[in-house]
Specification:
By secondary structure, the chain is α+β, with helices and mostly antiparallel strands. Helix content is 29%, strand content 29%. It has a 7-stranded mixed sheet. Strand 4 (68-77), helix 3 (82-96) and strand 5 form a beta-alpha-beta unit.
């Protein structure tokens, strides 16, 4: 269990976790990805695979001069509504990792209707600020 959530570090590799997600729901929730690049990031310790009862995510902590961002590199849901049901848990993880922003780039249109007003869109990317000391 990570940050008091239902997420755990994936006991299998990313390929197995993605295959498992694909068997339950063939839709990836986020933008197309380069699996080889993600595997390299995982090997280098720059990204992590987390499993949740509703799906899997590959997350990456990006640090720049003015902010720390928890970027959801890839997500695959086991059932419809997976992201929305795990959103508060992702926010808890982002906060515990010291991130000031949670972000992702979706594969499909329509996310504006699913996300609350705390999310903003910047180009293709959706972002949510994570205030320090506040858990959702």
């Amino acid at each position: 269990m990570i940050s008091g959530t239902r997420f755990i570090f994936a006991p299998r590799g990313v390929r197995e976790a993605i295959d498992r997600a694909a068997k339950k729901n063939r839709r990836l929730l986020l933008q197309d990805f380069d699996l080889g690049e993600i595997i390299d990031e995982l090997r280098d310790g720059r990204a992590f695979v987390l499993e949740h009862p509703n799906g899997i995510v590959v997350i990456e902590l990006r640090i720049s001069d003015n902010r720390t961002e928890l970027f959801v590199r890839l997500a695959a849901g086991f059932r419809p509504g997976a992201f929305v049901s795990a959103e508060a848990e992702m926010i808890s993880i982002a906060q515990d990792m010291g991130a000031s922003v949670l972000s992702f780039i979706p594969a499909r249109r329509g996310w504006e209707r699913l996300l609350g007003p705390e999310w903003s869109k910047h180009g293709e990317r959706f972002e949510r600020l994570i205030p320090s000391g506040q858990k959702s």
